[in-house]
Amino acid sequence: QVQLVESGGGLVQAGGSLRLSCAASGRTSSISHMGWFRQAPGKEREYVSSMNWSTGITYYGTSVKGRFTISKDFAKNTVDLQMNIPKPEDTAVYYCAARGAADGTYTYWGQGTQVTVSS
Q1: How many Å apart are CA 64 and CA 108, to the nearest integer?
Q2: Residue 69: how many CA atoms within 13 Å on its side-chain side?
Q3: C-alpha distances out from residue 119 to 11, 14, 68, 87, 88, Å
Q4: What pLDDT is attached to residue 101?
């Protein structure tokens, strides 16, 4: 089992910056990918970004590419999401997720952290 705990959400002005962090614990050696997803009220969950845990290769959703950056602290087993130039449409609950190499989908999820971008 892997446990994920997000932190760093809150209120930010459009054009500012905010950093989310996700701490992984438990069987972290089984993780192949970690990622961030978000869900706004009345909308489906949306993919934001992910990282291959071993290679460090990163991936981004179209709506955040060029503004958000995913990074990993190998020593702390945390994955961060740096949100630059946020827009009001980035307002959502942000979830950290993880999956193993044999998993077809993300199987471990954090509890979520609210991000609100004011205009």
Answers
A1: 23
A2: 8
A3: 11, 5, 18, 7, 6
A4: 86
Cβ atoms of residues 50 and 59 within 8 Å: yes
Please state, in angstroms and as integers, the Cα–Cα distance from residue 85 to each residue in 22, 80, 103, following that order. 21, 16, 33
For 40-88, write each residue's pLDDT tens digit. Answer: 999 999 999 999 988 999 999 999 999 999 999 878 889 999 999 999 9
Pairing of strands 78-84, 92-100: unpaired
35: pLDDT strictly greater than 90: yes
- Dihedral pair phi/psi, residue 98, rounded to 5°: -145, 155
CA atoms of 103 and 80, how far apart (whole Å): 22
